Task: inverse folding
């Protein structure tokens, strides 16, 4: 048997990293899938920032986690057939759940401990899925070219969500017969303040993407 060469060691190392990446993607699918299941089965209807069934799809947290779930499934399918998925969808999805993680951990949970933001499906969406997704991305995702301009594309989902949120309130009104269209309360101080809040969230989304890009560029 021929001795192992330096190049052979690199191949073995990369295969192990790919196996770990696939394993973490399986974990992401299980965690996000469990969260979605709890929401659709009305298992957490009594919790704050949780609606009934498909109504949960109005929340940014639900949308970003479902996007992360879909991206993880895509990467797993392509891995099985030995194809490589472009890195951009992964960066977009991880940045989205990263934003959810940051806003909840730094602002919502400390300022509103009564909201129970780490209970039920929220535990999956606000904590476990974001952590697993960010670790998988920066530590074990296969090496590939990731231009800095990709970070700009990550704000598109947040921008579209903000536009849809504001347009819905403008067209259908903030208050409704059954509740409110301003479920995050961003417009309590008027539309200018609400727009400013969304602008800050978009900047935070981009900052998270830049941080992921920077860390990823330093880890080989």
Result:
């Amino acid at each position: 048997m021929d001795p192992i060469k330096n190049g052979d060691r690199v191949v073995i190392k990369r295969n192990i990293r790919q196996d770990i990446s696939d394993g973490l993607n399986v974990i992401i699918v299980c965690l996000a899938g469990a969260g979605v299941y709890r929401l659709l089965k009305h298992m957490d209807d009594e919790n704050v920032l949780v609606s009934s069934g498909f109504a949960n799809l109005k929340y940014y947290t639900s949308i970003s986690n479902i996007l992360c779930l879909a991206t993880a499934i895509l990467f797993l399918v392509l891995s099985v057939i030995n194809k490589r998925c472009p890195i951009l969808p992964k960066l977009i999805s991880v940045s989205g759940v990263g934003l959810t993680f940051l806003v909840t951990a730094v602002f919502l949970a400390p300022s509103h401990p009564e909201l129970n933001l780490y209970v039920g499906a929220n535990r999956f969406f606000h904590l476990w899925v974001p952590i697993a997704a960010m670790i998988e991305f920066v530590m074990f995702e296969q090496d590939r070219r990731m231009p800095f301009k990709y970070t700009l594309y990550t704000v598109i989902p947040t921008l579209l969500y903000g536009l849809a949120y504001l347009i819905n309130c403008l067209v259908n009104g903030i208050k409704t017969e059954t509740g409110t269209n301003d479920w995050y309360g961003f417009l309590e101080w008027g539309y200018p303040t609400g727009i400013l809040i969304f602008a800050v969230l978009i900047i935070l989304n981009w900052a998270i993407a830049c941080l992921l890009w920077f860390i990823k560029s330093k880890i080989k």
